[in-house]
Amino acid sequence: MAFKTIKEIFAHNQEWIAEQLKDDPEYFSKLSKQQQPKYLFIGCSDSRVSTEALMYSKPGDVFIHRNIANVIPSNDLNVLSVINYAVNHIKVKYIVVCGHYGCGGIKTAITATDAGILNPWMGYIRDVYRLHKKELNAIKSIAKRSDRLVELNVQEQCINLVKTRDIQQALLENRIEIHGWVFDMRTGKLIDLGFNTQKVAKEVLDIYNIVK
Ligand code: CO
Q1: Is this model's pTM higher than 0.85 or not?
Q2: Pairing of strands 189-192, 94-100
Q3: CA of 138 to the centre of ligand 1 (A)
Q4: Are 193 and 180 in contact (CB under 8 A)?
Q5: Each residue's pLDDT tens digit in the chain (212 positions)?
Q6: Which residues belong to CATH 3.40.1050.10 in the chain?
Q7: Which of 100, 126, 148, 179 is catalytic?
Q8: What CATH number belongs to 34-208?
Q9: CA of 56 to the centre of ligand 1 (A)
Q10: Catalytic residue among 65, 103, 126, 158
């Protein structure tokens, strides 16, 4: 259903309430008690990346943070606060970083142009490009290069998770798993990039370890 007007959204809200109560009269009293999601999902703000559709999830299942091109900068208090709360208070078991092919943020970042106020944010993605410049520049097709950068960006953002104190502590206590995914909206497929947290942690923690 594509919403057209604000009025329709509120009408739909009434329908939704009625539907939930029909299935379970206690639905809202249960929902309002507490949340115990097992997943933290960090994805792109793109309107087509819907966790409900991708993960077949319902209210209460997934704690969500989204920004342009699913970036996890080490100085972004917004995403760091979400991670802190999810890992230490909600105690999620899985953190998913999910990129998507055809990402506008990645497409912009891959072109060396002035993106105005977006320049600092693009800089985070351009850093990923620089790290993998050799591999990426060997891909002739810009669309394919961009798709590969989507995957490498997910991988690097997973590494950025490992750089944080909260995640290092949780990994040490063996209570968190990190997964890197890509959503291919041309087919609807969710692809697991096979991010190996333990292997990556071993490779980078001699530089980034901050938990004694
Ligand atoms: Co995107």
Answers
A1: yes
A2: unpaired
A3: 23
A4: yes
A5: 576 899 999 999 999 999 999 999 999 999 999 889 999 999 999 999 999 999 999 999 999 999 999 999 999 999 999 999 999 999 999 999 999 999 999 999 999 999 999 999 999 999 999 999 999 999 999 999 999 999 999 999 999 999 999 999 999 999 999 999 999 999 999 999 999 998 998 899 999 999 97
A6: 34-208
A7: 100
A8: 3.40.1050.10
A9: 20
A10: 103
